[in-house]
Design brief:
Helix content is 77%, strand content 0%. The protein has 15 helices and no strands. The protein is mainly alpha-helical. α1 packs parallel to α13. The radius of gyration is 18 Å and the shape is globular. 50% of the residues are buried. It has one domain: Tetracycline Repressor, domain 2. Keywords: Cell membrane, Membrane, Transmembrane, Transmembrane helix. One of its GO terms (cellular component) is membrane.
Length: 292
């Protein structure tokens, strides 16, 4: 289920909630249970959607993993293929139902969850086998996840839908280099990823300046840049499998900092710091469980 990655998906939701303006006039002191419950349900939704998507990734890769990654749960015999299918289905169902509990049957939230689940399954089965469509497909899952958080405010998606393009580009860049985890990568693919990273940083910074919050977002962007570019530079100097793997892992975990940057860009500094607290949790889980 990649617990460390699920924490980054929760950060997507929290960033989306901030972008929607849901907490714009709310402080930690005035926060009520009625205001908190929809956010908790969306966090549960993304946990189910992400966990289920990753489980099905291992289901579809079970035969290949038997050769390339025999230590994974299914080929190692820790869990059977049937058990994994049941678990993945249950997680996706929980994710979709939790989303519908927020927006109702006629709301956009639940349908965004269904779209996310479909995008994840398409990637697991077909998308990852395409050199261009695969990274875009994986990025689409993250973009939809961010929109899932934004949809907590009816109508906010119509205003901020374009923000979902940023995680699509970012995750496409991470997925682009992840293909070299087993047998090594190329400096050309690393260059492409570096350019995409730079575009993401510039976009968030521009939004922050537009909202007159450039000084608030700067520390978050500097931390974000350091986390993603340092291992990427090492991979560029020596694009072997282990170095590529470290760059990919850093790119995934750094999503929390990227989301905290989004929150800071929309004038919610205390909320941004709260999102950033998810980083040590994800990093600790990343030591105990696989990230890629």
């Amino acid at each position: 289920m990649r617990p460390a990655n699920i924490v980054t998906a929760i950060a997507d939701i929290l960033a989306g909630v901030a972008i929607s303006g849901y907490f714009l006039k709310v402080t930690f002191e005035t926060l009520t249970l009625d205001q908190t419950l929809p956010v908790v349900c969306l966090c549960l939704a993304t946990a189910g959607l992400y966990g289920g998507g990753v489980v099905f990734n291992d289901v579809f890769d079970a035969e290949l993993d038997g050769t390339e990654r025999p230590e994974r749960p299914i080929p190692s015999g820790v869990i059977s293929l049937t058990q994994a299918i049941i678990l993945g289905s249950y997680l996706l169902l929980v994710g979709i139902l939790a989303a519908f509990s927020v927006g109702g049957i006629n709301g956009l939230t639940g349908w965004l969850a269904i779209a996310t689940a479909v995008a994840a399954l398409v990637y697991d089965k077909w998308g990852k086998h395409h050199s261009f469509l695969g990274p875009v497909n994986m990025g689409l899952c993250r973009g939809l996840n961010l929109l899932l958080g934004i949809s907590i405010v009816p109508g906010a998606v119509a205003t901020w839908w374009w923000v979902g393009l940023v995680p699509i580009l970012y995750i496409a860049a991470v997925t682009n280099i992840s293909r070299g985890e087993v047998y090594g990568g190329t400096t050309n693919s690393i260059r492409i990823t570096a350019v995409c990273y730079a575009i993401v940083l510039l976009t968030i910074g521009t939004v922050a300046i537009f909202h007159h919050n450039g000084w608030k977002v700067l520390p978050f962007l500097l931390l974000f840049a350091w986390m993603i570019f340092k291992p990427l530079r090492n991979a560029w100097k020596n694009p072997v499998g282990p170095n590529i793997g470290k760059a990919v892992k850093a790119g995934i975990v750094a999503l929390i900092v990227m989301n905290a940057s989004w929150v800071a860009a929309f004038d919610a500094l205390s909320y941004a710091l709260a999102v950033l607290l998810l980083l040590p949790i994800s990093m600790s889980l990343g030591k105990a469980f696989a990230v890629t």
